[in-house]
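Work Package 3 (structural annotation) set out to generate three-dimensional models for the target panel prioritized at the project kickoff. During this period the team completed the workflow that converts sequence records into discrete structure tokens, so that structures can be stored uniformly alongside our sequence database. As a representative example, we reproduce one entry of 140 residues exactly as it appears in the project archive.
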Amino acid sequence: MNDSVTITIQDRSTERQFRIRRMPALQAEQWIYRAALALGKNVGNLRSSIEDGTNGLMTSILRLDYQDAKPLLDDLLACCHLINGEQFVQLTGSNASLIESPLTLVQLRFEAAKLNFDFFSDGTLSSFLARLFTGPSAQK
């Protein structure tokens, strides 16, 4: 499992490299719960928002009111680092002005979601949730 990926994006007039890092497991789990609650669902019903994998999840988040979506989007942006020579500059709301195009920011968030939540696309989470919420109880 890759903990990070490096991508190159044409940011208007400048070609930039970015390193996208995976969230720690606990942070990713909390993000999933927050996303499910923001979407007005419980985690057991999250499958309906992820039928199209990560893209379906991101599309659902982008349909939320901005104030509900912003913390989730900010967490995804925080996974992204602008490579500036030997330095990695973590992107945040306060320094996102380093980026020229809003489309670059959107692409970075989508790439961060793909890296962190690739299990939405491969069916792993869906299968797990199906077993968890429909299988026999582990406690008797």
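Helices lie at 25-38, 53-62, 66-77, 102-116, 124-134.
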